[in-house]
Amino acid sequence: FKYYNFFAGNLNAAFHKELIPIRAIALPIGISFYTFQSISYIVDLYRGTISVQRSWFKLALYISFFPQLIAGPIVKYKDIEPFLNHRSVSFEHSVTGLRRFCFGLGKKVLLANTLGYTVDAILKHPISELSALLCWTAAVFYTLQIYFDFSGYSDMAIGLAETLGFKFKENFDLPYCSRSVREFWRRWHISLSTWFRDYLYIPLGGNRKGSLRTILNLLIVFFETGLWHGAQWNFAVWGLFHGFFLIIERLLPANQGKSFPAKLLSHVYTLLVVCIGWVLFRADDLSMARQQLQRMFLPNGQSFWNFTEIVD
């Protein structure tokens, strides 16, 4: 459903002829999430860490639970199993859940959508016509937009689940406060990073088989993390980009600086890496990402302050 045309298109391009026809395939809504949730159930059952769920209704409820079906978080069966069998709905939990839902809705509608409107207004113009400042503005605004958008959806899902008697784990923990890319991935989309850790990184050997194998495992995991987000090369490069910095951080001595300048520098470094990564993520393709990054860091004589491009 999601990757047929991606692999067919790349194979056809490699051989300069249509070996596999491109098809118009409708993508089932929520497939990225309920596929991973089904895998976690099957693998945990195989490992013996959970017992089989003999109720078709309860298993279907887990896989198709509507609050988080479309945008996450990814819920492992072992985390939700107690609530499938025994849960209670109370006025207190309903109020808390609705409050959390409203916060998430505010993040999405008031902040993410407003930021997104500005980003779209800037990037609808050819990159060659934009100033460096506008390219930076789009990058920073999108960095904020995607956080408020995704964490807002997670808040709504967690809140809705709580009103129905389910307790979900947190999916975001102030990721932009991180002082390393490694810390960022412990705070960003926690359900996805822990899923890849438990069901791909550790089974591949994790960091138990030497440095070279650890590097290979990280590259595989982050390549797959990128492709999970979408069947385009810019997503794969975004994943590998983050994987590269995780590898560098593992190879370099741990930063022991506790002074304010050291903390500030590490924080700025992390935000810069993440912001550049979001340029790759947001771009329509790698060519657009390259042009925007080139304009951000190499203005090439263009006016840095020119805002007239987006005045309609």
Description:
The protein is mostly helical. 65% of the residues lie in helices and 0% in strands. The chain contains twelve helices and no strands. The protein has helices at residues 4-15, 31-47, 56-63, 77-85, 91-123, 132-163, 181-187, 190-201, 211-229, 233-251, 260-282, 286-297. Helix 5 packs antiparallel against helix 6 (132-163). The longest helix has 33 residues, at 91-123. It is globular, with a radius of gyration of 22 Å.
Task: Compose a concise summary of this entry.
This protein is mainly α and 312 residues long.
* Low-pLDDT regions: 307-312
N→C terminal distance: 39 Å
Number of DSSP-assigned strands: 0
Principal-axes geometry comes out as globular
Q: Mean pLDDT, rounded to whole units?
A: 91
Secondary-structure-derived class: mainly alpha
Strand content: under 5%
What string gives the helices and strands in order? HHHHHHHHHHHH
The portion of residues assigned to helices is 55-70%
The biggest beta sheet is recorded as: none
Helix tally equals 12
Radius of gyration: 22 Å
